[in-house]
Amino acid sequence: MRLQSGCDRQVHPPPLFLTFVKRMDAYIEQAGLGQILEKIRTGKRLSLDDGKKLYEHPNILALGYLANIVRERLNGDKTYFIYNQHINYSNICTNLCKFCAFGRKRDDQLAYEMSIDEIRKKVRERLDEPISEVHVVGGVHPDLPFSYYTDMLRAIQEERPGVHIQAFTCVEIHHLAQLAGKPVDETLRLLIEVGLGSMPGGGAEVFSPRIRKLTCEDKISGEEWLRVAKIAHQTGLKTNATMLYGHIETVEERLEHLDALRRLQDETNGFLAFIPLAFHPKNTELGIGRSNTTGINDLKNVAVSRLMLDNFPHIKAYWIMLGQKMAQVALAFGADDMDGTVSEERITHMAGGETEQAIGHKTLIRLIREAGRQPVQRDTLYTVLENC
Ligand code: V47
User: Fold this and answer.
1) Which domain holds residue 119?
2) Atom from ligand 1 closest to the CA of residue 278
3) pLDDT (tens digit per residue) in 117-129
4) Residue 2 lies in a domain
5) What region, left, alpha or beta, does residue 336 occupy, with left being phi > 0 and alpha being psi -120 to 50 degrees?
6) Based on CB atoms within 10 Å of each CB, which residue in 237, 259, 294, 313 is the most buried?
7) Could you tell me what percent of the chain has a pLDDT over 90?
8) CA-CA-CA-CA torsion for 316, 317, 320, 323, nearest 10 degrees?
9) Distance 277 CA to ligand 1 centre (A)
10) CB atoms < 10 A from the CB of 106, how many?
11) Quick check: is 33 in a domain?
């Protein structure tokens, strides 16, 4: 429990709290989740059947209670945020996934591509802010040369020396390796030499071949995504992982996705955070006739991923996709990170995202405090920069 004043002073739980825990445990038992609670309390891994039971359980508060046990065991009351800037350098893409409103053909009116000078300008525009991470993601561009990507990393480092660049999903890295004509590990070493610090978790979607065939046939397979992530970890890079939910995927497909990530993490321990991404249907082929995800679906995905991914240190409630309000509530359902100040995100906004494109650190701190958590400003690798 946290005192009202001061960030990190702890007090022993009062008897009232213990009564609450006992009552909740009995309630969880009544809800038919007693065996899962026992596994969670004793640190045993949940099976895919457990995951299915959780996804299909109607009681969202019970799920939140369970996920919160793991959340608080791993991260206490801490809720992380980062000062960051997103740069989506180009939306020209050969994959043209059916769930994506961002990717465009080269001749599309809304297609764009930033020159290295424009990227420099973007970084320069925000030099007065204490940004510790520049997050770079684009499409699979048909004809930019490999040197564009190395020049971009160099330019960002020159404009903001020492900044951590989290860039290029496994999908982009796979493409860059082809461009460079080198194996993935060698390609990554070339990128690290000019400033790559870690990789974001995009492009994972849902690993199931059925889903990929129906939604993103031209994208690398789930197996390829996992292979690139594994090589990145073996090369010394930390990466994130995502799952795009709320379209045509089944509960079983979500769980197989989570299980594949959990198995890779057992091998490499290279994942930092998992980010469940809520599908935004507007302006997408897959979205025709489909609605936005509901609050309950969003919270379930946060809670179940916290419980299944027992070896992932962090679960992000990405406010850009969840909205500030839902992201704040997610902090009681397993999430321990709100991502960052962001600025100029385009992928969600082209798909009808209605959140702001950036929020200030003061808003993030207020949202976290109001949720009864302790705001912690972090860097990309979760080193604590400030307990706020
Ligand atoms: O790879 C595309 C997804 C991802 C839509 O690593 C969509 O910390 C919802 O991965 N609705 C890019 N999602 C964003 C991403 C990310 C974001 C924030 C933090 C991190 C991190 C990673 O967005 C894509 C794709 O999976 N996406 N279209 C859509 N219509």
Assistant:
1) 78-387
2) 9
3) 999 999 999 999 9
4) no
5) alpha
6) 237
7) 88
8) 180
9) 6
10) 13
11) no
